[in-house]
Design a protein that fits this description.
Largest sheet: 5 strands, parallel
Distance between the termini: 14 Å
CATH superfamily of the largest domain: HAD superfamily/HAD-like
CATH architecture of the largest domain: 3-Layer(aba) Sandwich
């Protein structure tokens, strides 16, 4: 494969470390394991709406599904306050430890960098500002301005059009196999960021690269 010109980064879990959200669930009296259940559920509902031609607001789906997820717990706070506490945690997340050095290394190699999130562009901006690497990205793209959520091909096309490149010139970086599969089907190459030493599902189109960190990805691409 040819060396890509543009690297397109997923944000939630790929760049942001969402593990601290488990503590937010504990704070309100819910089981910390519900954090992953909630996030998987909001993605499921967002995907379902996407299939039916709706481009939902990430925060709206996240908040309402969170209220439903917490409803079965004996909360230590008023339900509305509990939802606010967890949602506030999203805007305070930090990056994974490899992001700072990895993004700098990839930028120094001459790649163009953008984000493409199913969430808010402002969240990505704040996250990368706090990490000190926002200046390495030329755009913070979000499906807020696209016709559909990822993995709908129109989401990736939105990023390609915004950057003025063809699919063959772009590589998606993500921790989610469903995102990798979506990008591959849209014509992009893809790098599955396998931080957890997991196994990639055989029913998805495979990634072109399987680094365990962004620093390792820079070595592969460099």
């Amino acid at each position: 494969m040819e060396r890509p010109e543009l690297l397109v980064f997923d944000v939630n879990e790929t760049l942001s470390d969402m593990a601290p959200l488990a503590d937010r669930f504990s704070d309100v009296g819910a089981a910390p394991g519900l954090a992953s259940t909630w996030f998987a559920g909001l993605l499921r509902d967002g995907f379902a709406l996407t299939v039916n031609g709706v481009n939902p607001d990430f925060a709206v789906v996240a908040r309402e599904h969170l209220a439903q997820t917490l409803a079965g717990s004996a909360l230590a706070r008023d339900p509305a306050e509990a939802v606010d506490h967890v949602m506030t945690g999203i805007s305070e997340l930090g990056c994974h430890p490899d992001v700072l050095d990895g993004i700098r290394a990839l930028s120094d190699l001459g790649f163009r960098l953008v984000t493409l999130s199913n969430g808010s562009a402002s969240i990505a901006q704040r996250l990368l500002d706090d990490a000190g690497v926002a200046d390495r990205f030329e755009q913070m793209l979000s499906v807020e301005d696209a016709p559909a959520w990822k993995p709908d091909p129109r989401a990736y096309t939105h990023a390609l059009d915004a950057c003025g490149v063809t699919a063959a010139m772009a590589l998606l970086v993500a921790v989610h196999p469903w995102d990798i599969d979506g990008a591959r089907r849209a014509g992009l190459s893809a790098a599955w960021l396998n931080r957890g030493s997991g196994t990639y599902p055989t029913y998805f189109l495979p990634p072109d690269h399987e680094p365990r960190s962004l620093v390792e990805l820079a070595t592969m691409l460099g």
